[in-house]
Design goal:
single chain, 2 helices, elongated, transmembrane helix, membrane, transmembrane
Length: 65
């Protein structure tokens, strides 16, 4: 029993290089992404600042200022 050869399932579209429009990001999307990153970092920065403040007062309390 002979089988028919099957053509490749891979289309040529998968092997194309990205065009310049694929690399371009709108300014609004860029600003939104940066704003999300800043909002994610804000609580971390706030906690670090508060820890620094508490440790500073503890050290001044122990050793005197």
């Amino acid at each position: 029993m002979k089988h028919k050869p099957i053509q490749s399932q891979t289309s040529q579209r998968l092997h194309q290089h990205p065009s310049t429009t694929d690399y371009q990001i709108s300014t609004l999307d860029f600003i939104k992404a940066n704003l999300k990153d800043v909002l994610k970092l804000f609580p971390i920065i706030l906690v670090v600042f508060l820890l620094w403040l508490v440790l500073t007062f503890v050290i001044y309390g122990i050793f005197g200022g």
